[in-house]
Design brief:
Length: 167
C-alpha cells in the first residue's frame, strides 16, 4: 500500500457527551461554561488514546464522561459508537482543585455583577491559575493512557467540574 493510500490518523474528539444522570443541578453560569468548553473542545483538540491506537484506531473519537463510585470514567468510542476502551481515573487528586475552582468561579460570577474591573481581573487571574494547575494534573494522570495537549486538558477539566455539581 502506498503511503498516500494509508488511512490518516485523526486523533481528536469529534463528539463529547456528559452523563446527565451524574449532574444533579447547574446554574445558568455553569451551563454557559459547559457549552463553551464543549464547543471549544470540538473545534480544536488533540486526543490520542494510546491503547486504542496500538490496536489500530485512527480517530476521530467520541468521548463520554461520567463519574461512578468516585471515579472519572472516560468511555472512548469510534464514530460508529463502538466502544474502543474505558479509562477509569481516581478523582481524589482532583478534589481540592475542583473545590477551589468552584469557590473561585462563584466569587468570579458574583464579582462580574458588582465588582470593579480590577477586582474582577484579580479574581479571573486566580481562577485561571487554579484551572491551569488542574489541567496540568490531568495531563499527568493521562500520561501513558492518552496523549493530549494543555488546551484540551483544560477544557476537559471544566467538564469534569460540571459533572461534580450537586444541588
Amino acid at each position: 500500500m502506498s503511503e498516500s493510500a494509508a488511512p490518516s490518523a485523526d486523533h481528536r474528539i469529534a463528539h463529547i457527551e456528559l452523563d446527565e444522570a451524574t449532574i444533579i443541578w447547574r446554574s445558568a453560569d455553569i451551563e454557559q461554561e459547559r457549552r463553551i468548553a464543549i464547543y471549544d473542545l470540538i473545534e480544536d483538540n488533540s486526543f490520542k488514546p494510546l491503547r486504542s491506537v496500538e490496536r489500530g484506531a485512527n480517530g476521530p473519537y467520541r468521548l463520554r464522561l461520567s463519574v461512578m463510585d468516585g471515579r472519572l470514567v472516560l468511555a472512548i468510542s469510534d464514530t460508529e459508537e463502538r466502544l474502543l476502551e474505558e479509562l477509569v481515573l481516581g478523582l481524589a487528586r482532583f478534589r481540592r482543585a475542583i473545590k477551589d475552582y468552584f469557590a473561585i468561579c462563584d466569587s468570579y460570577y458574583q464579582a462580574i455583577r458588582k465588582a470593579t474591573a480590577a477586582e474582577i481581573e484579580t479574581i479571573d487571574m486566580a481562577r485561571r491559575a487554579i484551572h491551569n494547575r488542574a489541567a496540568e494534573q490531568l495531563v499527568e494522570r493521562l500520561e501513558g493512557k492518552v496523549e493530549t495537549d494543555f488546551a484540551t486538558a483544560r477544557r476537559l477539566f471544566t467538564l469534569i467540574c460540571v459533572l461534580h455539581i450537586k444541588g
